[in-house]
Amino acid sequence: VSTGGSVGDWYDTRQHLLMLYNIAKCVNWPDPTDLAPKNPPVCLEIGVRHGPSTLALLTAMRETGGKLISVEIDPEWALDATDRVREAGLTEWWELKIMPSEMLSLVFDTQLDMLWIDGAHDEEAVRADFDHFSPFVRHGGFILMHDYYRNLDPTSTVGPSNDSGVVAILEVARLTNRYEVLTLPWSHGLTIMRVL
Questions:
Q1: Contact 81, 51 (CB under 8 A)
Q2: How far, in Å, CA of 54 to CA of 57, rounded?
Q3: From 82's CA, which of 1, 9, 123, 177 has a CA 20 to 30 Å away?
Q4: Per-residue confidence at 35, pLDDT binned at 50, 70, 90?
Q5: What number of H helices and E strands is found in the chain?
Q6: How many CB atoms lie within 10 A of CB 106?
Q7: How far apart are the first and last CA of the chain?
Q8: This prediction's pTM
């Protein structure tokens, strides 16, 4: 496994992993007293890094019979994530694409129940990922974006820094009235959007 920041990656998303898991599991299974989900969910993850969010989403896919499609541009990070997924016994529910997300967007045509955007965070990249893949998220489905805040240091005298591309994209999307929106302000901020 690479030493390219695995501990940092875990810390970066760790407070959101349970939320990712629960949304992915319940998006088509709102009442767990039912024997099975209405439909096995299909989720797209943009940005795998070393795999913490991938494992959370795949655990939900295993429990629902769903499918996770992940796209990662960095082959080393993809290899790390693949090793972790294999060790966890979750490969059956996973399809990994090692390519830029914009290349995937040229051939993508799958309806989604959930979209997790955690790739590059500059405005252009976030806009491209949102514009390319959000139209595939069905009504009632979810779009989640990580890193709403770049600076959440409580000792900073500057306060939270909203220099992430997620902020600009979210504010434009909010004006369309097509989404219910919630941003959780910890661990760099997690934005949850439900498609109306």
A1: yes
A2: 5
A3: 123
A4: confident
A5: 7, 7
A6: 8
A7: 41
A8: 0.87
